[in-house]
Write a structure and sequence with these properties.
With 175 residues, the protein is of the alpha/beta class. It contains six helices and five strands, in the order βαβααβαβααβ.
């Protein structure tokens, strides 16, 4: 069922976990991955840059997107999974752009990461993940940011833990 997997990436830790899971799903189903990065027009407008610099902000966001897409392509190559990529214009909003890309790719599932900013913030500002669920043309698999290791991503090097030394109780001489 999940032979055509669309993964939405933004360079975040949650997106990296989602990409690892998308590649794993496609590998298990002998499918393909289509990775997309949406250039958020709202982020360009809200950057506080003067109008004449907004083109440079957009260019920088596209560069960040291409780097995130290259990571997904690398995961796909190492997993033997065909992977296509697209940088998408998010004029109508990020969830709408992802849904349109899923329709264009004829995706069976959309995989995306979620940072989980909390209920209050999601209530006040809205959640892209929540909006994606209502706009998606297919099932959506949300991957929390802390699941990178379980999703099949390469583990990051961790600093060695210091082991607690066993302390022996000193006996005081009686007397």
């Amino acid at each position: 069922m999940f032979e055509r997997v669309l993964v939405a990436v933004d360079g975040s830790r949650a997106a990296r976990a989602a990409a690892a899971l998308a590649v794993r799903l496609a590998r298990e189903r002998e499918g393909a991955v289509h990775a997309c990065y949406v250039v958020d027009r709202g982020e360009v407008a809200a950057s506080g840059s003067p109008v004449f610099l907004r083109g440079e902000v957009k260019t920088e966001l596209e560069r960040v997107g291409r780097r995130a897409l290259a990571r997904v392509a690398s995961l796909g190559r190492s997993g033997g999974v065909p992977c296509t990529q697209a940088v998408v214009d998010g004029t109508g909003g990020v969830p709408e752009a992802i849904a349109a890309e899923a329709r264009r790719f004829r995706a069976n599932v959309i995989v995306m990461g979620t940072e989980g900013h909390g209920r209050v913030r999601a209530f006040l500002l809205g959640s892209r993940a929540q909006e994606m669920l209502s706009r998606a043309p297919c099932p959506v698999l949300l991957v929390p940011s802390g699941t990178a290791r379980r999703a099949g991503a390469a583990p990051r090097a961790r600093p060695r833990r210091r082991t607690a030394r066993r302390r022996t109780a000193r006996r005081r001489p009686r007397g």
